[in-house]
Amino acid sequence: MKAKIISVFTGLVFCSITLTAQITISGNSVVVSKGELSTRGSITNNSSDTDFTATQLFLTGTNQTLTTSPTTALTVQGLTIDGGGTKAAIGEWTISRDLSFASGIFSTSGGKLIYLGSATLDGSSNSFVNGTLFQR
C-alpha cells in the first residue's frame, strides 16, 4: 500500500526529511523548505507559493514523476538522481547549484530541466539526462 502525503499546512519547513511516500502540495498551500528532502515517491506541486530554493532534493526511488504546471515551476538548490529507474519531469524544474547523477535516468520528454550551476556535470551509462538539459 502506497502512502500519500498531501500538504494541509501553511508555514515554513526547516528540516532534513526522508520519505517513501508521494508528495502532493495542494494549490492553496504555502510551503517553504530548507535543508535536505529525500523521497522514493513522486512529487506533485500545484502551488505557486512553494519555495524549495534552499532545498537539496534527493530522488531515491526506482521510478518517480516530478510534476509542476506553468504557474508552479520549482527551483531547488540541488538535485541528486539515485535509486535507479527513471525520474520523469512534467513541467519546469530549475537546479540552481548542484546536480548529481548516482543511479537513474532523468527524462525531460514531458518537461524542462534548467541547470544554473557552474560545475562540470558528470553522468554514466547508468545515470544521465534523457532529453534536453538547459544551462544558463
What's the layout of helices and strands?
Elements: E1 4-6, E2 10-14, E3 17-19, E4 22-25, E5 30-39, E6 43-45, E7 50-59, E8 64-67, E9 74-81, E10 86-101, E11 104-115, E12 127-130, E13 133-135
Parallel strand pairs: 1-4, 2-5, 3-5, 4-6, 5-7, 6-8, 7-9, 8-10, 9-10, 10-11, 11-12, 11-13
Annotation keywords:
136 residues
What does this structure look like?
The protein has 136 residues and is mainly beta. 0% of the residues lie in helices and 62% in strands. It is built from no helices and 13 strands. Strands 1, 2, 3, 4, 5, 6, 7, 8, 9, 10, 11, 12 and 13 form a 13-stranded parallel beta sheet that branches. It is globular, with a radius of gyration of 14 Å. The N terminus is likely disordered.
Strand count: 13
Low-confidence stretches: 1-10
Number of helices: 0
Q: H/E element string?
A: EEEEEEEEEEEEE
Helix content: under 10%
Provide a compact summary of the structure:
The protein is mainly β and 136 residues long.
